[in-house]
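May I ask you for just one protein sequence along with its backbone structure tokens in two labelled lines?

_____
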Amino acid sequence: MVLFNVSRVVTTPFGDQKPGTSGLRKKVKVFKQPNYLQNFVQSTFNALPPQNVRGATLVVSGDGRYFSEDAIQIITKMAAGNGLRRVWVGQNGLLSTPAVSAVIRERVGVDGSKATGAFILTASHNPGGPNEDFGIKYNMENGGPAPEGITDKIYENTKTIKEYLTADLPDVDITTIGVTSFSGSEGQFDVEVFDSASDYIKLMKSIFDFESIRKLLSSPKFTFCYDALHGVAGAYAKRIFVEELGAQESSLLNCVPKEDFGGGHPDPNLTYAKELVARMGLGKSNSEVEPPEFGAAADGDADRNMILGKRFFVTPSDSVAIIAANAVEAIPYFSAGLKGVARSMPTSAALDVVAKNLNLKFFEVPTGWKFFGNLMDAGLCSVCGEESFGTGSDHIREKDGIWAVLAWLSILAYKNRENLDGGKLVTVEDIVRNHWAAYGRHYYTRYDYENVDAGAAKELMACLVKLQSSLAEVNEIVSGIQSDVSKVVHADEFEYKDPVDGSISKHQGIRYLFEDGSRLVFRLSGTGSEGATIRLYIEQYEKDPSKTGRDSQDALAPLVAVALGLSKMQEFTGRSAPTVIT
């Protein structure tokens, strides 16, 4: 057994290490500065309760992006230096964000140990590589992201840090499953490398009826395609979809994890998942090849998902509503009923209508999965989702991209349980259109203006807040832009009081609510590593079944014109068009 010594290394604060709702994200070159990562990790250890550090078990893994291997070695040595008992690492340093949550909640070590937290190494859907993004976030013993009370302490610690603790361990081989043991002044320290997928697969098999999904995927009527965008979902795709569920290996796209995501942008939307979009018949050029019946994509750390039918896009807002509407009959885990449902504020109100019709508890929360986690820990919420391609349930405390795909496959399997041997296949498009007929349609789009000058973005938002003081002035501007748009009846900045812990979250997005149920929402997003991202959300509700089949962009064009004019988007940003339209 290798002996190690602990040393205290003198350091100085950086001052720019404030973690957002998704942790700390910066360019790789920033993280590579001497002591930059070490300062953040030590500040986190110092912010945690002592029992979560000394003698504790820590998970350290991520989406495999560039700099992850170096970071795992640095954090492992610091864990030993800070008196932790063991570190668990997914093989090759790979664990999806939902799998980390599952490992914290479900995994038991050979000696009976349980993890008390995790460092997840990811910048989510942001690009990877030497000149791109890296990120780190801490998840707690419930498997969910650290609450504001902890992240605020971390940030305060980063501003005053003077030293960090580390051990003189050799680098650990993270490519081979097994335990490496070391000995220090406080006793033994173990690094266990374990299979990245087995704990997560076991959990999925306890939630879904894999046999019914296997029957669907083996039917000649049903074709399937899954794109991991060279993210960590590739470490799970073959094991689940091919080995467990019998899909053809040729149905997997970009399922080899790469540290630069193959040079692509691992964001599962119509803009960046180009290969899948083309294969599903939604590309700009028409292909003579018949598209698959079902397609799905994941982001870099596999917590987001995009669902597609043949030549048909399912909005994330519709997706969570349809999962909730069908969960009890199609997914065994929910057979006893749903405790409640929740969505983030910018997400369309499609889920609200389902909740009202099914008499379910409903919650509208700020953007950030920790708000859902509080509801779930209190037994108030079973299914939840965000318009930003995040969907999940109370099986873990993170959004879960592969879970969402399995949920859709379960619904398709249930709807087609008597059709696979004969009769017409119920398609993704059929399910969505039938849902609109029953519940109405929420026409919805999101415009993202990425890497906008931060000062200009703040000015635009301030101007929108100031405008809210006079609805008469707002409606004068609106009618001047588009006379046939409904009247604005309410405008505010969304504020949320958590029903579980009573905490209040202010300034969570600027809302303009119209008489006919339409909404405009403006938010500054914190998921980029530089500049600012302005997100504009536009929604219109249509109950008339004869009017639910329009093209979304055509239906929303009047409201889009109002949103751009009201916000003076081009004047403030210099942009004549958004970076991404979803």
Summary: The CA atoms of residues 405 and 562 lie 35 Å apart.
